[in-house]
Amino acid sequence: MQITEIDTLGAMREVLNSPEDQQLALFRERVMEPLRPIWQNMLRYLPDGGGDDPALTAARMMKFYLPEMGREQGLAALDTLERGRVQQDNLAALQGAIDALRPAEHGVSLPEVRLAVTLASPDGLGEEGYTGAGNTPGWVTLSVWPNSHNLSKLPAVTAHEFNHNVRFQQPDWTFPMSLGAYLVAEGLAEAFAADLHGPESLGPWTGTLGLDTLRALQPRFQAALHEQDFGMVRGYIFGDGVMSAFSGGQAVSDLGIPDYAGYALGYRVVQDYLAHTGRTPAQATYDPWRVIAAESGWFTVEGQAVKPSKSQTV
Fold it and tell me: Is the same domain home to 237 and 296?
């Protein structure tokens, strides 16, 4: 499998070093245009398709660093990423994820995967300052505003997002997706990242909720396990507070779900499945979500045998 590096950071440096009156046009051309496969589909869901300046609309939605945010702090952040060997480390992490999953041996056709690291807005990604995406086939994207702790977390994000690339090509990943499929996909991606880079490399999302809270939430998730309304599914995965932030503070359906509950529960479900079966995260990436959900002991899934979960019984 060929890895292609999309040098978005180098392009951003070129933008910030250019004359101010040329920066925005160069940003569209050098930063956003190579990423068009990532953002073009996203804009299809907007009423106006991104308006008169779709590239800039997408950049704002994705919380990218923009030329208007200033030359000096942007260049300083790029210097920090360069000193931290972010490009090199995440290329290596991507190769490690490919080697672990061996997608071609499982009939997954991904002849090329592109890795893009983008500079994020300083206040766009919250306290953690980083995020990733792997929902576009053949693409792994990271976005980061560097701080004292987040650069070491990025290789795990790369592994997580490549796991999505592979998982989303499995036969039981269909659209519209169910809550159960999404829940298991996030749990698998985090378990895979932890297996390659250590549990300490994970972000806070899977550890936000304790076991007692997850047990209390289980009946809600069980009842909605086959829900396919995408807004509702995302509400269970991300929780009320995050969904409100996604919508710019506008009113959203209040499900009473804590932030990132789907990540925390999905991770626990997958960990219990692995413990029951002896499967590795890489092997389980190719297992049907219904099997994982049922054999974890957390959920009753029609047609699947149920084994009690240690987390549910201890």
Answer: yes
